[in-house]
Amino acid sequence: MDRTEFAARIDHTVLGPATTPTDVRRVLDEAAAHGMNACVPPCYVAEAAEHTSDVPLVTVVGFPHGHHETRVKCAEAGAAWRAGAEELDVVLNVGRLKAGEDDAVREDVAEVVAEVPVPVKVIVETALLTDGEKRRACEAARAADADYVKTSTGFADGGATVEDVALLSEYLPVKASGGVGSYEAATAMFDAGAERIGASSGVAIVEGFPDEEA
Length: 214
Prior knowledge:
Blueprint (H helix, E strand, L loop, with lengths): L2 H5 L2 E4 L7 H14 L2 E4 L4 H7 L5 E5 L8 H14 L3 E5 L2 H5 L3 H14 L4 E4 L7 H13 L4 E3 L11 H7 L5 E4 L5 H10 L1 E6 L2 H6 L7
Parallel strand pairs: 1-2, 1-8, 2-3, 3-4, 4-5, 5-6, 6-7, 7-8
């Protein structure tokens, strides 16, 4: 892929607990300048949509632990879409999954998917799961008609790994997120099967793309 195609697969992200409107505007401007998408907190989606129409907007639902009631996730998803979000990253309920309540996990995601007409990515938080649990999470997301699975929120101990991306990609397109901080790391994730990258280091990742004249 060329640099433009590469950049379009990066979700430049700002989701920390101290994120300010100024931080969001900076990330939007950086995303616009480099041809990336932007992933911002749901409380800032409307402001982000007003700030620029040139950057595809992503936001999160049930973030960061996925423990919201399903009706709350649905309300949050609908509000974010109406405010201008073009994609939603919803956190799977890891506790329900670990308890073996796979039907509840699937139904939770399915209701969010049904709530909005935009792509939904399911964050499975791979660092907290065994390989068997990762597969069950992916099966639930696929059965719920989700569009992607995403490795991580960035708030657990551990982020995306090549091995996890390869496993998840057996089920759905993958967004690799958490600890991807360089062009080389992003390329490794793409080589493992990722379709998208979520990273707060989006600028560094895109600027690391080799000079096409070299």
